[in-house]
Amino acid sequence: MNFLAHIYLSGDDPELKIGNFIADSVKGKKVLEYPDRIRQGITLHRKIDHYTDSHETVRKSVSRLFPRYGHYSTVIVDILYDHFLAANWSEYSKEPLEQYVNDFYLLLQDNFDVLPKRVQNFMPYMLRDNWLLSYESIPGIGRILYQMNHRTKNRSKMNFAVIELEQYYAEFDSEFRSFFEELELFTKNEMRTL
To answer: Which domain holds residue 47?
Structure first.
């Protein structure tokens, strides 16, 4: 899963959201530098990633992309699944997506000092281009994939994955819905043990 799903799966707990959001930028023993609840968010993120990467439905989505994008397929599916969460947001939250992401951006700004340097560095771009809200549309996903491809120095070619998104939209949507229902249940159970 990508940023939006990790934030959403953290529920209403601000520190859990921060930890779940920053987890990919926290390596090794650096995790010990964070307050308990943020550390728990980092742990939750890693459990979500492990569950996602080993899930048969996600693997089915990945296999559709693998011949063209190789090991980048898992990253692409994470982004595509965030699209389906954003595009169907009203099925998951009563709060409008725009308000939800604005509240999250404020949370990040209010906690800027606790964020890892890498997150502090990309945050201005995230806010300027409104990454989380851009997941909602296919052109927005196209921009995200273009930026990701640029970061791989054009090796991934993932900017072209919008073609497969449009071609197999119903299949990806169905796989996302099936998987996400199970992921929400898994996450709720995991949160009870944190």
So the answer is: 3-192
- 46: which residues sit within 8 A by CB, 6+ positions away? 23
Query: How many domains does the chain fold into?
Result: 1
Taking residue 31's Cβ as centre, other Cβ atoms within 10 Å add up to 15
Number of neighbours of residue 83 by Cβ within 10 angstroms = 25
Going residue by residue through the chain (194 aa), what tens digit of pLDDT does each one get?
799 999 999 999 999 999 999 999 999 889 999 999 999 999 999 999 999 999 999 999 999 999 999 999 999 999 999 999 999 999 999 999 999 999 999 999 999 999 999 999 999 999 999 999 999 999 999 999 999 999 899 999 999 999 999 999 999 999 999 999 999 999 999 999 88
Q: What is the DSSP string of the chain?
A: --HHHHHHTTTT-HHHHHHHHHGGG--GGGGGGS-HHHHHHHHHHHHHHHHHHT-HHHHHHHHHHHHHHGGGHHHHHHHHHHHHHHHTGGGT-SS-HHHHHHHHHHHHHHTGGGS-HHHHHHHHHHHHHTHHHHTTSHHHHHHHHHHHHHHTTTSS-GGGHHHHHHHTHHHHHHHHHHHHHHHHHHHHHHHHT-
Give the end-to-end CA distance of the chain in Å, rounded to a whole number.
20
